Amino acid sequence: PIEVPLKGPDGKPKLDKDGKQMVRVYSPESYANMLSRTVTYSLRNEGYLDHYRKMDNCDGWISVCSADERSCSPCIEKDGQFFSWESGQEPPAYHPFCRCRVKSHFIEEE
């Protein structure tokens, strides 16, 4: 079994009622599945962001949640939020099995 420490939406460790770090236990097969899905989404989003940064008319990105019955509240809360390149916000995947994506935010012409 593979133990993975859990974190809350704020990135801080999740603690149980006794103050101990909570963990999720994966079988090697389920851990490999989780990694492959999460890393694939994360790399896709990084590729999009690399492309957007090179565009002259793009000043950041918008977080897009899948918004279905499997979506979690932290992802739903980030849905539609704009993040400038200087914001320091990490792009999705926000957590294991995260399906959020990014889309470009274009500079508004005056």
Notes on the protein architecture:
The protein is α+β, with helices and mostly antiparallel strands and 110 residues long. The chain has 2 helices and 5 strands, in the order ββαβαββ. The chain has a 3-stranded antiparallel β-sheet. The longest helix has 27 residues. It is elongated. The mean pLDDT is 91.
What are the salient characteristics of this protein?
110 residues; two-stranded antiparallel sheet; 5 strands; alpha+beta; elongated
Average pLDDT reading: 91
Biggest beta-sheet profile? 3 strands, antiparallel
Structural class: alpha+beta
Strand order of the largest sheet: 4-3-5
Q: Span between N and C termini?
A: 57 Å
Strand percent estimate: 15-25%
Radius of gyration: 16 Å
User: Total number of helical segments?
Assistant: 2
Low-confidence stretches: none
List the helices and strands and how they pair.
Elements: E1 2-5, E2 23-26, H1 28-54, E3 58-64, H2 73-78, E4 82-84, E5 101-106
Antiparallel strand pairs: 1-2, 3-4, 3-5
